[in-house]
Amino acid sequence: MLSRTAQNLFWMGRYIERADATARLIEMGRRMAMLPGANEEWRSVALACGCAEALPEVATDSEIISYLLLDRENRSSIQSCIAQARANAKAIRTALTADMWEALNDHWRLLEALDADEAISDLPVWLDWAKQRAAAFRGAAETSLLRNEGYVFLRLGEYVERAEMTLRLLDVKYYVLLPETDVVGGGRDFHQWTSVLRATSAVRAYHHVYRGDYTPWGIAEFLVLNTTFPRSANFCYRALERHLDELAKLYGERHDCHEIVADMVGRLERCDIQTLFQTGLHEFIGDAIQVTNRLSAEISRAYHF
Q1: Which phi and psi angles does 72 have, rounded to 5°?
Q2: ∠ at Cα 15 (42, 43), nearest 5°?
Q3: Which segments of the chain are extended strands (E)?
Q4: CA gap 9, 88 in Å, rounded
Q5: pLDDT at residue 15 is higher than 90
Q6: What's the whole-model pTM score?
Q7: DSSP classification of residue 232
């Protein structure tokens, strides 16, 4: 496969996943902002998206929402992510199936013509639209794309982005994982937990594992260490290891990216939530984000993009 094609597939996967994750984070911010005593929730969402530094020090909720949803200069905004994914798709149109192209191209100009006031007034509608576009694209790829190296590079981009966004969400919400004693067990505390889980579509899955026991260590364990939930960091790293092994078998060589992901999978296998809290959950998450960024760079270097 041409390195340019691999690059476009990899980044298409990342941008689609980022648009979906940004929509989920905005939805979480909307829910959290409605709670009594909510403070700086939209700023925390911008931090999770990695773009808080570009915002004014004093920014209104509407300005932050508009920046995350529609700002073309913000490479993490939903509009920008979908536009960049579509540009990647156009560059390698023959590498995609018709279903994938239609899922990505359908109604994208509606978002391009949207103004901030209209978007904010109908925010749930547009967030659902963004999530549906991402789901439709993933479904089309899953059911129509050949299981060759193109599929692997697409999935690598998705899982790199998903792992990073899950870790960013936990890092920004660290104060939620260690709440003040006056709100533990209260109504606001419960909604904080469920908002974090809703942002990753984890409420039902978490309930199956923990039977609704919403605790700091339970949520951290589920989103970091669980091996069966598709958005947990552990699941993402295992998927990355599996797909990179496929490339190693296909091309007959291994690179630093294979060692990086294998090391992270090994660390997570040897870890438990008590150890994470004792050694510092915040420090572990920060290190894991750096590892994920390094892994992305090494994948690009290994396959020449």
Answers
A1: -75, -20
A2: 10
A3: none
A4: 7
A5: yes
A6: 0.90
A7: S
